[in-house]
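Re-running RT25 protein to confirm reproducibility after the cluster update. Everything else is unchanged from the original entry.
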Amino acid sequence: FLTDNGEQVLVDVEAKTNREITEHIKKILGKSKETLEKEERERKKLSHPATFGPKKYHLRECMCEIEGQVPCPAFVPLPKEMRGKYKSAMKNEA
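Result of re-run:
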């Protein structure tokens, strides 16, 4: 085998099955199991339905896209009692 940088790798394949050969090559040239498991955990963590952020990394861009949440103030104005100015005005009156 030749790697990307031109290095030659010799593999003894005599009396080995195709699975043994594949596993041996993965072990020599591939990533370690720990690295693969870590990458899989990262992928699962980002694709978790409870996370939100840029579409490139998450399933949802905004929390308002989750059913049952308060609509996004960018599209639907919040009720007065949920606004900071209204709350502080009510505290000052009391």
